[in-house]
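Hi team,

Filling in the usual template for the complex we talked about on Friday. All components are listed, including any nucleic acid strands or ligand strings, so the model treats them as one assembly.

SUBMITTER: L.P.
PURPOSE: interface mapping
COMPONENTS: two
RESIDUES: 654
SEQUENCES:
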Amino acid sequence: MGKITMTQALNLAIDEAMAEDDGVFCLGEDVSAKQGGGVFKVTSGLTEKYGENRIRATPISETAIIGAAVGAALAGQRPIAEIMLMNFVGVCMDQIVNHAAKLRFMSGGQTPCPIVIRTTTGVGVGFGGQHSDMLEAWFAHVAGMHVVTPSNAADARGLMRSAIDANDPVVFIENILCYGLESEDPGEGYRVPLGKAAVAKEGSDISLITYGRTVLDALEVAGEMEKEGVSVEVIDLRTIAPYDEETVLASVNKTGRAITLHEAVRPFGVGAEIAANIQEKCWDKLKGPVRRIGGTFSAVPFASHLEQAWIPQKSDIANQIKASVGKD
Amino acid sequence: MAETAKEIDRDKLLDIYTRTMKVNRTDEKFRELLMQGKVAVMYYCVRGQELVSAAAMAALEDDDYVVCTYRGQGEQTAKGIPIKKWWGECLGKATGTCKGKGGTMHITDPDTGIMVTTGVVGSGIPIANGLAMASQNNGDGRVTLVSFGDGAANIGGFHEAMNMAQLYKLPVVFLCQNNRYGEHTAFADHTDSPNIGERAAGYGMKGITVDGNDVNQIYPAMEEAVAHARRGKGPVLVEAMCYRMMGHFFGSDFSYMPEEHLAEMKAEDPLPKLRKVMLERQFTEEELDKIVADIDAEIDEAVQHALDAPLPDTDEIYKDVLEETA
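RESULT (copied from the run log):
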């Protein structure tokens, strides 16, 4: 079937969902053909097929974008709302947290809110403090929604279809540095179920639990560790919340050691929640403390060498693995 | 104030009167139960604003969408929400519209078009756009009406939503019930412009400021706004001037309201004014009293039903979080 990039994967998933269901539509800043199909081209070519009502270019109004998505979802449609960069969710948190996530519960199940909130972010492109953060923990902390991020193009296609199918809000995080990644095209209709992690690499000595772009770092370090005789199992969560506890715990019960890794800052992060859960549920099998690796607890800096120093380092991942298995 | 000369059809007038009194009698009953200590919940009184809600709902079709606020009793009951379920929800019972999980601030009943009741000032306005966007996308001909107060006109979402609605010519009516207070702050202490209705012009939108205490002003204005939106001409901002004759919520102090304001509001009370119009239009005292008596009987039955109703199961805290937990 050939290879596709993550950008193409997302575009194909949205395209086929729109073709199948008239209720699926996109809205967001710069998304239509007039503006070039989105700043990262994910909605490229869709205006020509589905018209400007279904690929709605919006004013720069994040609250109005998410509010409109919520309302349309209540009326039975399946909006895909784009918040161009993840930091801009700060403008519309009320609509996401107080409304999209809670309307199903507060209405006693009468008004589910099936919206996909696509958003992009990532450290390493020189965008500085207000265009780079991974803020998944903000959403993982709120009941009533899914938080998803793909680490490869095939998963991107499958997760996007499942996100559009879902009858609840899904925050879908795309990493800028991952748009160009290529996978074998998994084909039309491909779905990756929400809430299901992937074992990206099997191993027996330690579980490295991660998601999104840092899966790439984890796999690279795991490959190096193999040469040193350490067998690392890499878990790609794919869905950050609610996460696949079964797969994570099974892995840690097997290896007896765990490290959580994410690009987001470490304090109060997703890794902390997973680490705490592992300590509670795998205590008897653990051979040592669960370690956490995350971004530096400061704003993402601009200067390239500072930004690179801010990101979780591959050397640190390697060192933490060695320390865990007693090889430091 | 807008000049509207058109006489309201007699059947429609009776309909508005009935809806107004439903709102009023529900409000009176709620305050009575709270005073007696029979219920202890948050309740945002609508005394003084009954006619605005009733006229707005009377201008809509049954399947039109409504978004309202915590002070939404007027829209909810005037739109025709089943009142046993309404009282059940307000009392936190399993028989409530939302199984007791939403409460007075989050009444939801899609069957009567009450799509969202928000507890966050101004947050319903962008959501109304989305309901209207769905109608524009699928051509179902519905109009969405969103009600909010003067305080909500100063939150960012109001501005974003006004601009977007006009840009797309969405079939939505923005009803600003200017009750002269944003929570405990008087209009002049939170806004320096003379009114909210004129803001519509800044968006290229049709806007009107109208006397919400006079049925002959407010109903024709609502009827025209709804028709405009339904014809695909775009949104309308209707500012209905009215008074909140009580504090922000039941039991809250409103001694900050100046004497002259209280006197002005008493003189403008929409209920005696509406009664006068009804009598002028040849309805009899007996007919009008009978309507109120029937409403009271229905409310009494609904209240008793809610008081007797079971509490929601504790398991409900785990349900309706996601589809998987439904």
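MY TAKE: Chain B has one domain: 10-72+104-303. The longest strand of chain B covers residues 172-178.

Thanks, L.
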